[in-house]
Amino acid sequence: MIMSSFATNHVRSLVNTAGARTVSSTDSDSAAVSAQSRQSSQSEELHTLLLQLKSPFDKYTLRTTLQALNDQELARVSVSPSKLSLSGEDADNSMRVTLENRIIVGIYAEALDLWLKEASEADSEAEWWAGIARSQQSVAWYLLATLPERLRRSFYAILNALRSHHIPLRPSSFTPQTLRQLFPHSLRPTALATAFFPHLSHQPHLLFTSPLELARQECELRKEKLIFLRDERAGRLGQLLSIKSEMERSMRDERLKVTAKRLQRAIDDKSDGVDSIDTSSDSSVSLLHYLTFHQLPVHVSAHAELLSSLRRPSRLTLLWPHLALIPPLSFVAFRLVYGSRESIAETALRIHDTIKGFWFGYVIEPMKSILDTVRTGRDNAARIVSREGVRADIESLERMSIALSRDKLSLDNVELQRLVDQIRQGDLTPVLRIYEEDIKSPVRAALTGSLIRSLLIQIQKAKVDLDQALSGIDRLLHSQELTFAFVGVAPALAIVYAFVNVIRGIWIGGRGDKMLGGRKEREGSWLAIRHVERLILTNPGSSSSPSHIAEHKSESESTLPPLTSGLLLISLARLRAYAEVRLPVHSLIREGILGDIGDLENPTLGRTEKLRVVERMWRSWGTVLGWDRIGRFK
């Protein structure tokens, strides 16, 4: 298992320090190593182990290397010093020191990963219990889901009580009267009550309340225990961070036993991490071997045992009400659906016809019409009046006017041609003059004159004017044909767009966006960065009395307390996991956020510098990741 990116980045300087001596010694003693050290099997093994143990460290490789080095250490002790070559021994010591330093760095990285994982796990479980306790509905569901286990414990409590009273087991033993005799009322919780709600065993008095309230108290108690466990692991993690500089100095001075003992003290659960270091016994390799193969496994087992009683119920426990209710509900639903299959089929057919009619009638056909208009232009478009009809009416008006003028005014060809030009321009002055003369004697002109002809010519002129007006309207409509077409199809497109957005929102809400994550992931990143800022501004676990204000103020300007540093890493681990999983690989936003997280993980930066980093993250990534509008995701 490879160490996490946090641990790898944190111990990078230690890896460089551990390898510095090897580089210098290899340059100066390369001839001795090749001529004398490689003649020894131990030298070859050291060289092989040194080559395979590189950063990022692998836990399996780390343990196999340590075991091999420990075996070689035991073999060296059994060999007489007179049998060792001086120059070869010097080269071996150089490689052995470097190898031990790398093993120390690997164990240190493993310890960082382990305590961060344990603290994060406890914090995650505490958040789950807090979420259950906040909702009365969630508490009721939790009580229902854990009811079989509670009944099982209650059954065994009744069996134990029956055996202690020498009462035979029969159905009458479970009557209310028998249960009252077995578990009489008292101020302290009875064995039956503690079997149903185990947290009552820690209460001196029995408070009569509802089962829902007792279940909520159980959730709150587990949350408090997990928070205490998280803070303890976070404090130890902060202490591990604080010894990095001391380890680096010890490694630079080649004080291997001091470095190994300091790491052992920091990891020891029974130590406060600051005890004096005793280097009088045991070698550094034996200390590392004990730490890796005994101390760490014992701690892992103890933590697993402690956390097992505080974990959330198993997935099967939480799902069994669903599994129990789904079959009968499915059967009832099937009966209802089967009994109403004809009406359901008819409704489905209507819905299908409606959707089909909407799609083809209001979307596809209008879009085809728009494409046809764009492709063919105005040639095949329908018109209010045709061009040929307007031209025929104008020509008829010309002939009628020319015939009347020739009969009444006796015009020659030149004057007739001038009259044609006037008529085409809409000027009927000669015809109107004839009409003016005839109107003086309307009866005689109507019977013997040309009044009727002049009236009919004016009617033809009105028809021509109407055709020309309609032609103008027709040209205006055809010039805006695309506009009207798009206005007609716009409501249908808006409905389709809204429907697609709803489906897309449901799909993205369920599976998450590949680029920036879904709503839950963005909310988690927002909560993480908010918690980081809150931790930097405050000082969890410190005294707030006036006598300590000046002391903590001066301390807060430079470094963070171990507990604060550990809790800070928990939130940063969540933020790092979000960035590494959800943000695009090799993108600027991913690299930028990971760089900012690395700055916040740096223990050498003080409170003021980390606050500036947090402000930069809000300013740079708040809009991109939606932190500034997180309330809209609810």
TrEMBL record:
What InterPro entries does the annotation carry?
NCA2-like
Gene Ontology CC terms, in alphabetical order:
mitochondrial outer membrane
Q: How does it sit in the membrane?
A: Multi-pass membrane protein
Task: Specify the signal sequence span.
Answer: none
User: For this UniProt entry, which segments traverse the membrane?
Assistant: 484-507
Q: Where in the cell is it found?
A: Mitochondrion membrane
Tell me any Pfam family this protein matches: NCA2
Primary residence: mitochondrion
Alphabetized, the UniProt keywords read: Membrane, Mitochondrion, Transmembrane, Transmembrane helix
**Which residues lie within the region annotated Disordered?**
538-560
Superkingdom to which the source organism belongs:
Eukaryota
Q: What is this protein called?
A: NCA2-domain-containing protein
